[in-house]
Amino acid sequence: MAARVGAEHYGAERAETVLPVKWVAERLHMGAPGYVSLLLYRQRKGI
Questions:
Q1: How many domains does the chain have?
Q2: What φ, ψ does residue 32 adopt, rounded to 5°?
Q3: Mean pLDDT, consecutive 10-residue segments, the chain of 47 residues?
C-alpha cells in the first residue's frame, strides 16, 4: 500500500509523492501501517 503525500514545491499549487505506508509509519514512529492508513483515509474524507 502507498500513501500520496502532498507538498508545495517552488510555486506549484500541489506536488505529490507516493510513499509506502509502511515506510511512513516506521519513519514517523506512528505505529502499525494499518493505523497510518486509517489516519490517511480519515484525513482524505474529512472525518
A1: 1
A2: -70, 145
A3: 60 71 92 93 90
